[in-house]
């Protein structure tokens, strides 16, 4: 096994990145002190309207929505950058007792935030184990992360989903 403690899951939209991360969190929750967040779709009558953030300790915030009034936009979604920054400020990513940080996801919307990009830079250079999802394609910042020698990138697909979950669980357990 490699010495990396930074694990990134990439794949097509809807490929199961978040679901895999949630399974890993459920497996490790009683073993490891962790912090971070998951991103979930906001849907109404089958239509995706935006995205919400859920911290691992249960707090919820809106990341983006088609009806938000904000100048920040990715596709049809308006991004609540101030709300996202406030949400990030409430998460203790760097508390001494935290052994695992979960970031779902490193995407175009999230990367609009200077605070978020700085948190990611600090997590990549710090000692904590990082489990993150990252879009297949994105910003130059995202591409730089994926090609960093500090990270291991795993691409999820329907054919490897179960095996990848077991492999990541073993690698994370060995590092925390």
In short:
With 176 residues, this protein is α/β, with parallel strands linked by helices. Helices cover 31% and strands 32% of the residues.
Task: Describe the protein's topology.
Layout: E1 6-11, H1 17-28, E2 34-44, E3 47-55, E4 60-65, E5 73-74, E6 77-79, H2 81-89, E7 100-106, H3 114-125, E8 129-135, H4 140-146, E9 151-155, H5 161-175
Parallel strand pairs: 1-8, 1-9, 2-7, 7-8
Antiparallel strand pairs: 2-3, 3-4, 4-6, 5-6
Helix pairs in contact: 1-5
List keywords for this structure.
176 residues; alpha/beta; Rossmann fold
Main sheet strand line-up: 5-6-4-3-2-7-8-1-9
Overall CATH architecture: 3-Layer(aba) Sandwich
Report the portion of residues in β strands: 25-35%
Count of domain modules: 1
Summing up helix and strand content along with how strands pair, one would put the structural category as alpha/beta
- Helix content estimate: 25-40%
How is the quaternary structure best described? single chain
Number of strands: 9
Poorly predicted tracts of residues: none
Distance between the termini: 14 Å
CATH third-level topology: Rossmann fold
* CATH class bucket: Alpha Beta
Kindly report the average pLDDT value: 96
Radius of gyration: 15 Å
- How many H/I helices? 5
CATH homologous superfamily, by name? P-loop containing nucleotide triphosphate hydrolases
Biggest beta sheet summary: 9 strands, mixed
* Apparent shape: globular
Question: Secondary-structure element order, as H and E?
Answer: EHEEEEEHEHEHEH
């Amino acid at each position: 096994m490699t010495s990396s403690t930074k694990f990134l899951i990439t794949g097509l939209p809807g490929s199961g990145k978040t679901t895999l991360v949630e399974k890993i969190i459920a497996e490790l929750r009683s073993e490891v002190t962790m912090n971070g967040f998951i991103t979930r779709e906001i849907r109404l009558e089958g239509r995706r309207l935006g995205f919400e953030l859920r911290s691992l300790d249960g707090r919820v915030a809106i990341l983006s929505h088609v009806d938000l009034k904000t100048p920040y936009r990715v596709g049809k979604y308006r991004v609540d950058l101030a709300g996202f920054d406030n949400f990030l400020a409430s998460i203790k990513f760097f508390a001494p007792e935290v052994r695992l940080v979960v970031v779902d996801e490193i995407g175009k919307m999230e990367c609009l935030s200077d605070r978020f990009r700085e948190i990611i830079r600090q997590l990549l250079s710090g000692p904590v184990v990082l489990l993150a999802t990252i879009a297949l394609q994105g910003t130059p910042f995202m591409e730089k992360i994926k090609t960093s020698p500090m990270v291991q990138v795993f691409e999820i697909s329907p054919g490897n989903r179960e095996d990848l979950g077991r492999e990541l669980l073993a690698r994370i357990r060995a590092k925390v």
